[in-house]
Amino acid sequence: MKKTYCLAIVWLCFLMMVALTACGQSSEKEILSGEQKNEAEMLKGYESVTIKTKDRTIQFNEMPKRVVTFDIHPAEIMLELGLEEYMVGTAANPDDILPKYREVYSKIPVLSRGLYPSKEAFLAVNPDFVYSGWDSTFQEDRIGTVDQLNELGIKAYSHQSSNIVGPTLEDVYQDIRKIGHIFKVEDRSEKLIESLNNSINDVRQRIERRIGTVEDPLRVFVYDSGEGVPFTATQTILTELIKMAGGKNIFDDIEKNWTTVTWEEVVQRNPEVIVIMDYGDTTVEQKKQVLFNKPALADVDAIKNKRIVVMPLDYTFEGVRIPIALEKLAKFFYPEVFK
To answer: Is Signal included in the keywords of this UniProt record (predicted)?
Structure first.
């Protein structure tokens, strides 16, 4: 009797172990199938995105996963949107990146500290998307034309607001929206736009509260470079920022982004403020010497009153630095407002 009882207990335990094992295997299969299902849904769940540029339409049927950025402002927009995990290369000097992004940026391979890497270095990181600040990146003797890149399965997008005449803030915001749309982070792109807009409106409101509507804006000349013939900004986002800060670009009637003018024209339009663009091998001091040593400019108001403001070129691009550039201009134009 005892033997039969013991056998029954052993048999019962065996059946329970079999049942538990089967349940565990079943649960594991369910979990695995659930994970596989989620992954499949993520891959399948990317709704195709159509992006229109000034000269073509780009179709994204899957999200880019290996991005190379050219120029500072596309890189900083990607980083601000939290998309660094998709960046496999960048062509911009790490020393020029905003301090808030440097730690993250340091983990991204720098293909070139100058303008363009070699095609070999570019293709070696196996990119599927190129995001550039300027159309000029996409040339055969650089990284290739847009059509050539497309043949290799590489999508190409240039920051539209940097490549049109007379961009507005809304044009810049549209660029940010498009990147957010491509990477399905629309909530982040809208948050960034809201933050930029709030910062810009804060500066404008401070000017209005202290001095009201600017009836007679300061006449401003943007001096980029050139001794015999000056090179200047005409209709870029900087012209828009000058206007917001209470000034007026004296060459905003020329329908180009940048162009050469004559010193005679500068004298005739008599700027009250000169903005010196700071970049490249020619120092700010050397540019000041050009201006102050030119006899024809001696009676120009900005020269007589030494009203010269220095603006790093990177801060005039159509990106996340716009509020910083605006505040810098406004503080120089109307220092009493910001005391």
So the answer is: yes
Cβ atoms within 10 Å of 1's Cβ, excluding its own: 5
| Residues contacting residue 123 through CB under 8 Å, at least 6 positions apart | 152
User: pLDDT (tens digit, 9 = 90+) per residue, 173-201?
Assistant: 999 999 999 999 999 999 999 999 999 99
pLDDT grade for 30, boundaries at 50, 70 and 90:
very low
DSSP annotation of 65 reads: -
Q: Give the helix/strand (H/E) hosting 273.
A: strand 273-278
Give the residue range(s) of CATH 3.40.50.1980 domains in the chain: 49-158, 215-338
Query: How far does CA 185 lie from the centroid of its chain?
Result: 15
What class is the 215-338 domain?
alpha beta
Side-chain half-sphere CA neighbours of 160 within 13 A: 19
Assess contact for 92 and 98: CB atoms under 8 A. no
Q: Are 73 and 162 in contact (CB under 8 A)?
A: yes
Helix (H), strand (E) counts: the chain: 12, 13
- Partners of 155 in the β-ladder: 129
- The enclosing H or E element of 192 equals helix 186-211
Look at the alpha carbons of 4, 5, 10, 12 in this order and tell me if their dihedral is positive or negative. positive
Beta strands in 31-182 (DSSP E): 49-52, 57-60, 67-70, 87-91, 110-112, 129-132, 155-158
Reported as type and span, the H/E element at residue 312 is strand 308-312
pTM of the model: 0.85
DSSP 225: B
Asked if 221 and 269 touch (Cβ cutoff 8 Å), the reply is yes
Query: Domain 49-158 - what CATH class?
Result: alpha beta
In total, the chain counts a number of residues equal to 339
Torsion of Cα atoms, 237 then 243 then 249 then 255, to 10°: 50
